[in-house]
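Memo to structure team: turn this sequence into structure tokens by end of day. - J.P.
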Amino acid sequence: MLAYSSNMSEIITDYADHFDCEWYRDTYYGSVCVEGALGKVVKFDLDNYHAIFQSGKVKGKRLLDIGTGPCVHTIMSACRHVDDIYLSDYTAQNRKALTDWWKSDKTMLENITEYILRMENSGETVAERQKTMKGKVRAVLPIDVTQTKPLGTGCDVTEFDIITSSLCLEAASRTLELYRRHAGNVTPLLKKGGHFILNGTLGESWYRVGDKKFASLNLTKEDIESTYVSCGFDVISLKHGASSEGGNFSDYHGYFVMHAIKK
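Reply from structure team:
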């Protein structure tokens, strides 16, 4: 059982100084079979990403993963369907964790990789799949979705064929108005006709990283759909599940995976 501090009351918004990337990766993505509802959410996300990419309809040259964090689960299914992958994150420690993985022979999230390979009926080993992923990564970029140009001037690519994002925008937004503004900041990064695959939480105001609570925006399924419709997307699918089992890790009430196409 993971340790929990009963004194953890303050909700933090400063990721740069307080986000423990190793704890986050090992706790939430150490396995598909992590404790209780956490594993259920991870499996839901992986299953839906697999189905979206396995359809063969979502492919292109360039993919941008927004707010990758210290994990690479969002590109495990996607990597076979794109040529170039750009990872990104707001915090230096997460970018370092990604770069350390990319530039080395190390693997991460081995159990999750195995789970995806089984879904695909693939004969690849974990090391082979992750070598494929690394071979397609072109950069690990700083990103700030609160800015009108989230990638700043650090990337020569101005439009992507596919954008994926996991648990990022709700963590960067304090109000629904700001969430919509930040979604609008991201939208120009996707080309017309491009695919946006997004997963996140519903009804969450905080989640735990180590002995700290980090803020998250309490969103409904309707908030998600209306936001991206207003940003000029056709929402192809918005699958969601309900849960009240976050316990010491979060106060979320549900989760979702959205697939949308930019008009």
